[in-house]
């Protein structure tokens, strides 16, 4: 089974942006966690907010500033 990460953004210019296809869920979780770290590094969030983003990323989804990143199974 393959997976993908989609950004369900509220902004029309980046809505449903594909962040890649992955051969397994572990690879997708690694990438969504990397994206979460990028968001944290580029913003001034409290420690609690940072931890919340990372916890949700480990579950396969997180949102921040109008972006909602989510791992989905890719259609065959």
Explain what you see.
By secondary structure, this protein is of the alpha+beta class. Helix 1 runs antiparallel to helix 2 (47-59). The protein has a four-stranded antiparallel sheet. It has two helices and four strands. Strand 3 (61-64) and strand 4 form a beta hairpin. The protein is 41% helix and 29% strand.
Write the layout of secondary structure elements.
Blueprint: E1 3-7, E2 17-22, H1 25-42, H2 47-59, E3 61-64, E4 67-73
Antiparallel strand pairs: 1-2, 1-4, 3-4
Helix pairs in contact: 1-2
Note the main attributes of this structure.
76 residues, alpha+beta, four-stranded antiparallel sheet, 4 strands, 29% strand
Strand proportion: 25-35%
Major sheet: 4 strands, antiparallel
Q: Averaged pLDDT, please?
A: 90
How many helix segments? Answer: 2
Measured as a percent range, the helix fraction is 40-55%
End-to-end separation: 8 Å
Brief overview, please?
By secondary structure, the chain is α+β, with helices and mostly antiparallel strands. It has helices at 25-42, 47-59; strands at residues 3-7, 17-22, 61-64, 67-73. The chain contains 2 helices and 4 strands.
